[in-house]
Amino acid sequence: MDSMTFVLFGATGDLAKRKIYPALFNLYLNQKLPKSFSVIGVGRGESSDDEFQSRVIDSLHTFSRHLLNDKSKKEEFVKAFRYCQLDVTDTAGYKKLLELVQQNEKEKNMAENRMFYLSVTPEFFDVIAMNIKDSGLGSTNGWKRLIIEKPFGHDLKSAQELNEKLSKAFEEDEIYRIDHYLGKPMVQNLEALTFANPVLQSLWNNRFIANVQITANEIVGVEERAGYYDKAGAIRDMVQNHMLQLLMMTAMHVPKRISENEIRNEKRKVMESLRPLQRDTVGVHVVRGQYEHGEISGEPVVAYGEEPGVEASSQNDTFVAARLWIDNSFWDGVPFYIRTGKRMAEKATKIVIEFKNPLKDLYNSEMEQVEPNLLTININPNEGVSLQLNSKNPINGEMEPITVDFSASKQDVPEAYELLLFDALVGDSTFFTHWNEVELSWNWVEPILEAFKENRVPLHSYSSGSMGPEAAHQLLIEDGYKWW
Ligand code: BG6
């Protein structure tokens, strides 16, 4: 691929500034962008090309992981940026955008490869997609692709409706749905870890694994997003997408070939085997919570109901934990636990595999207790893998757990957006969410949404800065386990 036009809707927004421009710049520095590329920023406000370019340079100063002092590189990079003022609902305005794109392609002798990135609120996804089609922007001699980011609907029905509309303008294999968790280097590494290591591969089943625990805890609260979050809750914001993606990536089995389609196929199989929940028994397997006031790093923080934009009586979930079962021959009998919450004691995204411990009765004296073997995949804030084994301390002869550790060096790790944008540029959709996965995930989550809405599941409160409601601990204690 030697040329591409990147049309960014929402070019003056927060995501563009924090993530997209720095990611494009890093790709540029690593010579991973096509030789000839243009970025057409689309925004509602007025701006000249020069103003737009300096806005981009500012974002690189603040957010790029390459603290490059060499100004000339940045200036060279932003020369490829043009701005187009457009109200995305104004159908006639797209003609101007098409002219700009075409004129630019002509001037630079570029092929008509067009990437449309919709960094706008989801209510505009279908409007923009249809306008791209109707204006002729989507009729190219090269390829066209659409990148969108969650939320893809707010329940099964709305997701289906959205998909139906998008599919009138783009084919499924032209749609790149970002789940930024799939761009995290350690999540991408799961595939290598489990498929490329015969030692782990042979243990990756219910004969050896006792349970799997997937955690995505955050310290931050609702921040300034009450308008969205109070309607979404942790169930829509984290579980339907990120948590279920982590589950699919962990539980999928080695395909016959390592290819985009085969991997997605394996992921789909996991979702299809996920035991459905019944609305009236959701509470047996799902715990929901909402944060109370408390302390974070020694500072007092307010309860969810006192956050700006949230009604004191809000029943929204800021924490969800659940026990899931995958009914297939590999995972039969192995509980998968997920938990995610805001205002927790620490920021930690990780997957812990607890192995069965059949030897524990061999060593059951006080001196010689054996802990289960644990494989921990740390995703965020630190990237790494560790394996907990039992070993005798050579000095005092006591049995103790030791940890074999690998941690990546922080500064070299590329950002999720960098990896994902590159994949989209080269047309590799392995780490994007296929429509099947979106649909199956909503389908699985649906009884939980209903049970929450009908208040069939108690809403536990937990102190800010804690490890979540006691009920979430009980969920594992019932099965003889604990959260690691
Ligand atoms: C987003 C959610 O998708 O993921 C946020 O909307 C959440 O509520 C964020 O804070 C967490 O992402 P990360 O990469 O910080 O774990």
Written description of the protein model:
Substrate binds at residues 180, 184, 218, 237, 342, 347. Residues 192-484 form the Glucose-6-phosphate dehydrogenase C-terminal domain. Belongs to the glucose-6-phosphate dehydrogenase family. By secondary structure, the protein is of the alpha/beta class. 36% of the residues lie in helices and 23% in strands. The protein has 14 helices and 16 strands. It has helices spanning 14-29, 49-63, 71-78, 94-107, 125-135, 156-169, 185-195, 198-201, 226-251, 260-273, 282-285, 416-426, 435-453, 470-477; strands spanning 3-9, 36-43, 81-85, 114-118, 144-149, 175-178, 209-217, 286-296, 299-301, 319-325, 335-341, 348-355, 374-380, 384-392, 399-407, 459-464. The strands form two sheets. Strands 7, 8, 9, 10, 11, 12, 13, 14, 15 and 16 form a ten-stranded mixed β-sheet that branches. Strands 3-2-1-4-5-6 form a six-stranded parallel β-sheet, with helices on both faces. Strand 1 (3-9), helix 1 and strand 2 (36-43) form a beta-alpha-beta unit. Helix 5 (125-135) runs parallel beside helix 6, helix 9 (226-251) packs across helix 10 and helix 9 (226-251) packs across helix 13 (435-453). The mean pLDDT is 94. It binds 6-O-phosphono-beta-D-glucopyranose.
